[in-house]
Design brief:
This protein is of the alpha/beta class. It has one domain: NAD(P)-binding Rossmann-like Domain (Rossmann fold), CATH 3.40.50.720. The chain is built from 13 helices and 13 strands. It has a 7-stranded parallel beta sheet with strand order 3-2-1-4-5-7-11, with helices on both faces. The chain has a two-stranded parallel sheet with strand order 6-13. Strands 8-10 form a two-stranded parallel ribbon. Helix 1 links the parallel strand 1 and strand 2. Helix 5 runs parallel beside helix 7. The longest helix is centred in the N-terminal third of the chain and has 26 residues. The protein is globular, with a radius of gyration of 20 Å. 49% of the residues are buried. Bound molecules: 2-amino-3-ketobutyric acid (AKB). The site of 2-amino-3-ketobutyric acid (AKB) has 12 residues, from loops.
Length: 340
Amino acid sequence: MRKSIILITGVNGEIGHGLVRSLHKLGVSNIIGVDLVQADDFVQERAQDCMIGNILDKNLLDRINAQYEIEAIYHMAALLSTRAEFSPVIAHEVNVDGTLNLLDLAMEQAQSQGKPVTFFFPSSIAVYGLPTLEEKLSAGAIGEDDYRHPQTMYGCNKLYCESLGDYYSHYFKRLSVTESKGRVDFRSIRFPGIISAHTLPAGGTSDYVPEMLHAAARGERYDCFVRQDATIPFMTMTDAIRAIELLMAAPPDALTQIVYNVKAFNPSVAEFLSKVKEYYPEADIGFITNDSRQSIIDSWPEDVIDNQARIDWGWEAIHDLDKAFSEYLIPEIRSRYGNS
Ligand code: AKB
């Protein structure tokens, strides 16, 4: 008999770490992690097994399919927006072909088990594309159906994979005589920038906020690559993981959408820096604007509307900007860097 497991791809990444931490705290002991690199001790101590491999490797996925019965897939492996702009074709392969491989694995598992496999897909505010900074500022908070014109390969990938998930959940092989509707239970959140106290992002365009905070905590100089007025939505990793847990725990008939916005706070860089200085008054922060990365931030919304997540599955952030610092970031970062 195949052992029942929960599969997390990109397990050694930022959200992967947060998921392992949270699921382990909930008593989940059957996590199988997959990543390109060996998972660190934190993950290895909490997962049942960690496999080193590529989600493009069909042989790896065939081995997982043969060995395990998958309850749920948290597909976190991806190339983020900045890295994807340097390698757009590789980004498409990982972000789209890799996601297609995982959706196909979910469908095969659901068909052989005779019950749905829940599939969590982290989408992003990168699916939105505001045409000008003026329109971004006048648009303010936008809903899930607004401005879906991504201007990055990563945003294109995420938007297309939302549709792939919808297809696998509701229209898979619709000319076939066998019914597949509902076998894959695809659920997705369009994450804003995420700030973790425990890990640093790699290759994102929203990285300037966590990079600034961690540099201040380490007493290092940091040159921010966007302007002081740059504004997009953010949330703490605590809230990001909580949103995933709430969405994945919701009964299927409570969900009216396959993809949801969530929001917590949307500080300008200047507002975030002011908060950093409250705790690290000596922070040595400069500004060297990278116009290309700035243009990506200028195309992302300054805020989002998350009413449907609140209605369908009880979403509400626990950390606004002040609580993010006082209740999570500063206490956790101080214990991480051992400074007062
Ligand atoms: C990125 O910056 O690419 C990600 C995102 C906002 O999806 N953090």
